[in-house]
Amino acid sequence: MKKYVFYILLGLLCPAVMAVCYVSGVGCINAIGLEMVIGILSSVSALLAIKEYGGTGKPIGHWLSALIPLIAIPLIPVAMISHSGFEVFLARGRAPFLTIEGFAIAQFVVSVLMFRGLIFKRGEGRLMMPAIGFVIMSSVLRIRAKFINPAKILREIGLQKGQAILDYGCGVGVFTIPSSKIVGDDGVVYALDIHPLCIKTIEKEVGKRGLANVKTILSGRDTVLPDESVDVVFLYDVLQFIIDRGNLMEQFHRVLKPDGHLCATAEHLDVDEFLNAITKENLFTPVDRKGKVFRFRATSSSRPG
Ligand SMILES: C[S@@+](CC[C@H](N)C(=O)[O-])C[C@H]1O[C@@H](n2cnc3c(N)ncnc32)[C@H](O)[C@@H]1O
Question: Hey, CA dihedral for 117, 165, 272, 250, is it positive or negative?
Fold first, then answer.
C-alpha cells in the first residue's frame, strides 16, 4: 500500500515543484497547468488502483497509473517550449524540466511496482498478464540477466552435461538457453510457463538457435512429465506467484529423480515462509544454499513403494 501513497505524493509534488520554479522565475505557467491536470488524474487513477488491489476485476486503475506519467514525459517539454520558446527553455527551463521529468519517471517506475504487487497479491492464473505487461516483464528480466550471470548460477547448483532440468516459470528463457548449452545434446530442458507469450518467445529463440534439447510446456500447474524424469527442478523468482504450493511440491517430488534437486529462490517471500512452503509436507529437505538459490533433496521415505 505504501507504493500507492508514494505514487500519489509524487503526482502531487510535480505541480508544487513547478509552481516553486515559476515563482523563482525559472518555470512556466503552461507546465504548472499541465502538471496540475496530470497530478489530479494520476491521483484519481492511484485511488482506483487501491480499490482494485484486493479484488479480481480488470486493473484499469493500474493501467492508467502507468500510462499517465508515460504520456506526461514527452508532454512536459512540449508545454514548456510552446510557452517560452526553445531558447528560453534551454537557458532557464532545464532545471525544472529535469526535476519534473525525474518525478514522472519515478512515478512510472512506482506504477510498475504497483502492478507487480497486484500480480503477487492475486496469484497464479487470476491475472493473466496482458501483452504490455509481458513486454515490461521481459525487459526487466533481460536487463536483470546482464547482472546475474545465469550460466554461473546453473553451474553452481550443480547442473551438468546430460541432465534433465525443469525450468519452472521460465519467463523469456534467461535460464532456459544457458541450461540448454550446459546439458548439451544428451540432456533436456523442459521450459514451462503459464504465460503463452513466454512460451512463444522461447520457441522463437530455440528455433533461431537450433536448440533441439529444449521442450516447452504451456501450463500453470501440471508439469505433464513422467515420474522420476528430471535431475533438477529450477524455480528462479517464481514461487511467490504460486498459491497452491503444496500441490506443486507433490508434483516436483514425483518428477524428480531420487538423487535430484529442487532449486528455488525466495524472492519477495519471507525466508521462513519460503522454507516452510517447500518442506511442509516433508517431501523435501534443505541441502544447502548457492548464492540466492536454495537446494533441496526429495525425501525418499515419502516416495511411494
Ligand atoms: C519473475 S518471472 C521469472 C522468470 C524466470 N524464472 C527468470 O528468472 O528469468 C516469473 C515467471 O513465472 C511465471 N508464472 C507465474 N505463475 C506461474 C504458474 N502458476 N505456473 C508457471 N509459471 C508461472 C510467469 O509467467 C513469469 O514468466
Answer: positive
What's phi and psi for 235, nearest 5 deg? -125, 105
Question: pLDDT per residue over 177-222, tens digit each?
Answer: 999 999 999 999 999 998 888 999 999 999 999 999 999 999 987 8
Whether residue 133 has its Cβ less than 6 Å from ligand 1 = no
Looking at the chain, how many residues does it have?
305
Q: What is the pTM for the complete model shown?
A: 0.71
Ligand 1 close to Cβ of residue 169 (< 6 A): yes
Q: Say how far apart CA 163 and CA 184 lie, in whole Å.
A: 8
Cell 502492478 appears where?
115
Residue closest via CA to ligand 1's atom 12 equals 169
Alpha-carbon Rg of the chain, whole angstroms?
24
Nearest to 213 by CA among 260, 252, 178, 169: 178
Which has the closest alpha carbon to 122: 219, 262, 34, 240? Answer: 240
CA 106 to centroid of ligand 1, rounded, Å: 25
Q: List beta partners, residue 290.
A: 293
Dihedral sign for Cα 51, 55, 57, 60, please.
Answer: positive
Q: Yes or no: say if 175 and 197 are a contact pair by the CB < 8 Å rule.
A: no
CB 115 near ligand 1, within 6 Å? no
DSSP string, 144-179: HHHHH-HHHHHHHTT--TT-EEEEET-TTTTTHHHH
How many other CB atoms sit within 10 Å of the CB of residue 243?
Answer: 12
- Residue 305's pLDDT band (cuts 50, 70, 90): very low
- The residue whose CA has the least distance to atom 13 of ligand 1 is 169
* CA 183 to each of CA 95, 156, 231, 232: distance values in angstroms, whole numbers, following the listed order: 54, 14, 11, 11
Model pLDDT, residue 152: 96
What does the pLDDT look like over 247-289, one tens digit per residue?
899 999 999 999 999 999 998 888 999 999 999 889 999 999 9
